[in-house]
């Protein structure tokens, strides 16, 4: 059914893991929202978490002296702008970690939205996502505790915007802190990370988070994943690990220790040399499980 349209892996009873234990390590910020939860992370960063949807997307508000960067705008189900406005009065610019629907939902509520200079990603933001493309992502089994009161589920779509483009190694200057754009393709052709060298934080987007990593996508909706490119990206990221203290990840759990990246590289290599077991999911994908994460590829 839905997996054939969008290549989404079908989740089962995902909400049994909610609330996740690790959020107790962080101060929950008191904000008004019937969709988002906000947590204060080290080094002036807020995690803006969509715990009520299977995607469990996390957007990050990174506070600078002059401007703030909002890394991703979530699914567009709750109004993330209203949350951001409760957290800062400063100018906020949006950076999208990549163009997948679950990270760009509220782009149209902001005047400056940046994404990697990938033609397909830029084109996607210029057309948005239609109601038909998104309606399966509101299937009741994906949602826990219900949708926001004023959310119009029949007309759920993502509005087009005119994005600004980012280059690899570009520096975003927030005043007292700088973020470096790292081009990290693999999960998608337009994926980037943001590196905060001073504070030893790497914002990993969907290229790493402690759950099922998606290396199986193809088609118009998600673009093409590329397993070998993904491995090369992870090898480059592994070289950064000695200079990092924290990974801030875009799904499920906001903070992970960087040394797991070494395990991810090993896992990709084990998949290539055939020394790892897998199970078939949704009849056409392979899921390889490792401690703390798994990797999904096409079953070819
Ligand atoms: Zn995502």
From TrEMBL:
Domain of life assignment: Bacteria
Q: Which InterPro entries match?
A: Metallo-B-lactamas, NDM-1-like, RibonucZ/Hydroxyglut_hydro
Q: Where is the Metallo-beta-lactamase domain?
A: 56-251
Pfam name, any one: Lactamase_B
What is this protein's name? Glyoxylase, beta-lactamase superfamily II
Q: Which organism is it from?
A: Maledivibacter halophilus
């Amino acid at each position: 059914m839905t997996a054939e349209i969008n290549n989404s892996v079908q989740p089962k009873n995902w909400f049994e893991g909610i609330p996740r234990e690790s959020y107790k390590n962080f101060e929950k910020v008191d904000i008004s929202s019937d969709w988002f939860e906000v947590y204060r992370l080290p080094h002036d960063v807020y995690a803006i978490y969509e715990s009520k949807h299977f995607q469990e997307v996390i957007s990050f508000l990174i506070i600078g002296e002059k401007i703030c960067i909002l890394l991703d705008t979530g699914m567009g189900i709750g109004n993330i702008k209203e949350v951001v406005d409760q957290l800062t009065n400063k100018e906020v610019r949006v950076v999208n970690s990549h163009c997948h629907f679950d990270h760009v939902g509220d782009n149209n509520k902001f005047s400056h939205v940046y994404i990697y200079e990938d033609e397909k990603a830029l084109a996607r933001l210029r057309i948005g996502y239609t109601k038909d493309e998104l309606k399966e992502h509101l299937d009741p089994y994906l949602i826990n505790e219900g949708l926001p009161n004023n959310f119009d589920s029949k007309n759920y779509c993502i509005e087009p915007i005119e994005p600004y483009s980012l280059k690899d190694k570009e520096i975003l200057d927030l005043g007292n802190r700088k973020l470096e754009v790292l081009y990290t393709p693999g999960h998608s052709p337009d994926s980037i990370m943001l590196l905060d060298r001073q504070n030893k934080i790497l914002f990993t987007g969907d290229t790493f988070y402690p759950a099922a990593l998606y290396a199986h996508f193809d088609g118009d909706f998600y673009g093409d994943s590329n397993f070998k490119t993904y491995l090369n990206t992870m090898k480059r990221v592994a070289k950064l690990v000695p200079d990092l203290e924290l990974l801030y990840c875009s799904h499920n759990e906001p903070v992970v220790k960087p040394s797991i990246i070494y395990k991810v590289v090993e896992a990709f290599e084990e998949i290539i040399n055939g020394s790892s077991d897998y199970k078939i999911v949704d009849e056409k994908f392979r899921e390889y499980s490792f401690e703390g994460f798994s990797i999904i590829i096409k079953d070819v």
